[in-house]
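re: that chain from earlier
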Amino acid sequence: TPFGGKQGGPEHIFGVLQDVTAQKEAELNCRRERKYRKAILGSSLASFEANFTLGRYYGGGKPMPGLPSEDGLDYSGVIGQFAGQSVFSADREEFLRRFSLEGVINQFIQGETKLTMECRLCGKDGSCLWVLFTVSLIEDTHDVWGIAYVKNIDSQKRRELSLREKAERDSLSGLYNKGMTESLISEFLENQAGGIHALLILDVDNFKQINDTKGHQAGDSVLARLSGILRRIFRSADIVGRIGGDEFLVLLKDIGSGEMAARKAREVCRALCVCVGPEEREFCSVSVGIAMYPQHGTCFSELYRKADTALYQAKYSGKNRYVLYEESSSPQFWDHSAGP
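^ sequence. v structure.
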């Protein structure tokens, strides 16, 4: 601002500088937020906002079944009903743990500002859709707010699961491959606090002879056939895998006792005694070694070693039989032919 002098010209000039960095950054952030919201809304199935301090739901974004468009609703009621009606049952508990009112507040207190979960939404026709459920958290004065988006990731997720399935499965048998079988069993045993389980090693008797006399294609056909029988015999909760050319590994969960495991092994031996010749005059059979958790060990390597020792005994005793390892000062075995 100029001030006039004696001859009418400016004698003094006063200026004020004001730091507007914070204001400009806020304006830029606001523009970015508007662009971000527009981009997300354009690709999302649904969106809503919530005041987690007050426990209020605001459905001014994109509504979808289970996520209403009304404002000011009780957040816990809306998210609980949505989980019960739309979220796949296997994903529901984890969904509520993450996105319940208490869950969101606890995660925010721990420093989390973006909560995400991949889950399945179920339609009335029973179909399932993979989605990414995201809640971005911000603190406005004294309240914690969230902006939630539901994004369709079904195609991407199904491709990912398909690739994972191929990586985990043996291409010939369709069972878990060696690495995945051992990993699943090890993980299961490490998390056990009780229960009685059985580890079974199955080996096809004289399989080399089948390959040598009938060819590898015939051998592969036998393995595929035996694998199909194994899938039918064991429960979906059991872990069944092919760990070698003619060797299979099974973890029988919560089998109850060694006697029950032996009974199951007998059933396996009988079921896998199948015809392999074109005139149904030739048969193949399997031998089985069994070790019990926790009686014979509590980790995979220990149980595998005991079951492998029992398998050797079954082979040595004439094949087509099962052997349950028994721990003692000198190892003893239950040795049973699979015959009647």
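The CA atoms of residues 82 and 135 lie 15 Å apart.
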